[in-house]
C-alpha cells in the first residue's frame, strides 16, 4: 500500500513539473549547443594533443619525455607543486579560519586581497616579483650581496606560483567554515579539549572535503602555471624550465611532436586531477545520499508505527 | 552551594548584556533561567561555563573562584542550543570525546559510554552519525556527551528550543526524571515560561540584563516581585484604571483606590483563575458576553466581552462549563475575586512598561 501511495505521489509530481518544462525542441537545441561546444573546443583539441604527440611514433614520444631537459622540467614542476601546495594549505586554513570565525577590522580587505591573484594578470604578477627581487629591484642589491638568487632561479618560480595559487584553498574553505560556525569547537572546549585538539579532531574533519578539493585545484594550477613563471624563471632549459615552459619552447623550435608529448603529460595530469575531483564529488554525494536514505527510512518507520498505533 | 554569582556584569562594547547579577544555585538543584530573548540569560550561562568572561564580578563553582579558570578546567557540561554534535563522529565517539580528551582508560571510557547509551535510550544508534538522528535523539546525545566526563554542573542553553511541540513535552518530563536520577546540579536557559515553571526547582527571571526575581515556580507565579514578572509568568489581565470619586475605574470595572487620590492612575492585574463566571446574571456584579471559548485540555479559557468592549480572560474546568451550560454568545455575570496593583504612578505607566513580551495566550493556564 505504501508503494501505491508513493507511486501516486511521484506521478503527481512529474505532472506538475511538466507545466514548467520547456518544449522538447528548446531542450534539445540547448543540449546540442552545449555538447557541440564541448566537443569542438575541448574534446577535439585534447584528442589532437595525444594524436600529435604520437604522430612520430612511440620512440620520439618516449625520448621527448626522458631526455635530460624534459626530465629536469618534470622534476622542477613537481618540486614547485611540493612547495606550493603545503604553503597554500597552511595559508588557506589560517585565512579561512580568521575570516569565518573571527570579527576583526580589515576583514573585507583581507577577502579582497585573497582574490587579488585571480584578478591580476599572471604576467603582471611575475613582473611584481622582478621589481621586488630582480637585480634592479628593491631587494636586488641586498640579495646579490648575500649571494642569494630568487629571480631566474627556483625560489622565484616557487614564489610566483604560490602567489598565483594563493586563493585556491582559502576560497574553498571559507564558505565551508562559515557554514559550520563555531558551536562544535566551543563544544570541544567545554569537553576539555585545547586549541590544537579542537582543530585536529573537530575543525579539520569538518572541512576535509573542501580542503581536499582546494588542494586538487591548487595542485593543478601550480603545475600548469605559465605566465608568471615565464617572467621570473628566465626559461633556461634544464635549469629553470617547468613543463608548460618546455612545451612552449619546443613548439617555438618547431619540435611539434616533442612539444605535444610534454603537453600530453600535462593534459594527463589535468585528466587525472579531474577524475579524482569527480570521484571525490561522487563520494561526498554518496555520503549525503546515504544519510538521506537513512533519515527517510527512519521517518517512514515512525510514520508506520504511528499509523499502527492509531488504527 | 554549588554555584555562586556575585555582582556579575557583562558589557559587549557599549551594550550591557548583564547588569550586576547575584544569585546562587544549591547542590543538586535544577534551576531555570527565564526571560525574553535578549534578556541576558544565555550570557549568564556562558559566563558560568567560561565561554564568556564577566566584565565585573566573581563566579564561584563549589567555593572556588573560577574567573581565571579556562573553560576546559571548569568541569562543566554544556549543551548547546544547536546541540553542536561533532558531525564527523558517530554517536559513540561523540559521547566518548570528553573521556578521550581527559585520557580515561579505554576500558573505563567504553563502560561509561555504554552506560550512558543505555541510560539515554540510544541503544542501537551507536554507529549512527548526527545527521542520521531525529531532533530528540540528537539532544539526548548532546546531553550524554556533556555528562560523560562527570561534570559538577550541567548547563543547557534552550534545551527544548529546536524540537517540535510534542517531543518537547516528552523531553521536559525526561529531563526532570534524569535530573532526579543523576542529581547533578543543572542550570538551563529558556524563554518559555511554561517550560521553566514545569521543570525547575527554582526560576531566575531576567529582563534586559537585570535579575527580576528568583524563586520557586509557585512563588514567582503567586507573588511576582514586579510588574514584569507578573506579566511574563502566566496569563494576566492588565487594566489601566484611573481613580475618580475614590474608586479606581476602567469602563464598567471598579476597584478600591487604596488611598490614592482622585486623578491617580493604577495599573491593575489579575489572573484568569481569579475571574469567577456564572450563567446566573443576577449572581455576580458585572455582566459580559462569552465571546469565545478556547479548549486547552481539562481547562477552558473564556474570553468575556464587556458592554464597553473591554475583554477579560477567565478560565474554568470542562465539568463546570458543562454544568453551567455555557456556550459562546451567552450572556454571563462575573466578578474579580482578587487582583494586584502592578503600578501606581504615572512614571510606571509609561509606555515602556507595555511589555512586548506578552506570553502567547495558551501558555500558563495549566499551572
What brief labels describe this structure?
A: mainly alpha; 15 helices; B: 367 residues; six-stranded mixed β-sheet; 20 strands
Brief synopsis:
Chain A is mostly helical and 311 residues long.
3D architecture notes:
The complex is a heterodimer of chains A (311) and B (367). Chain A is globular, with a radius of gyration of 26 Å. The longest helix of chain A is centred in the C-terminal third of the chain and has 55 residues, at 256-310. Chain A is built from 15 helices and no strands. In chain A, 83% of the residues lie in helices and 0% in strands. With 367 residues, chain B is α+β, with helices and mostly antiparallel strands. Chain B is built from nine helices and 20 strands. In chain B, the strands form four sheets. In chain B, strands 6-7-8-3-9-10 form a six-stranded mixed sheet, with helices on both faces. In chain B, a hairpin with a 2-residue loop joins strand 1 (3-12) and strand 2. The model of chain B is unreliable at 350-367 (pLDDT under 50). Chains A and B meet through helix 10, helix 11 and helix 15 of A and strand 6 and helix 2 of B.
Present the secondary structure layout.
The complex is a heterodimer of chains A (311) and B (367).
Chain A: H1 2-18, H2 24-53, H3 57-66, H4 68-101, H5 107-119, H6 122-133, H7 140-145, H8 154-165, H9 167-180, H10 183-190, H11 195-206, H12 208-224, H13 227-233, H14 243-252, H15 256-310
Helix pairs in contact in A: 2-15, 3-15, 4-8, 4-9, 4-12, 6-8, 6-13, 8-12, 8-13, 9-12, 10-11, 12-15, 14-15
Chain B: E1 3-12, E2 15-25, E3 30-34, H1 41-49, E4 56-61, E5 64-65, E6 76-79, H2 91-101, H3 106-119, H4 135-147, E7 153-157, H5 165-182, E8 185-190, H6 193-199, E9 202-207, E10 210-215, H7 217-222, H8 227-232, E11 237-244, E12 247-250, E13 253-256, E14 265-270, E15 275-278, E16 286-295, E17 299-305, E18 311-317, H9 318-324, E19 331-336, E20 340-343
Parallel strand pairs in B: 3-8, 3-9, 6-7, 7-8
Antiparallel strand pairs in B: 1-2, 1-4, 4-5, 9-10, 11-12, 11-14, 12-13, 14-20, 15-19, 16-17, 16-19, 17-18
Helix pairs in contact in B: 2-3, 2-4
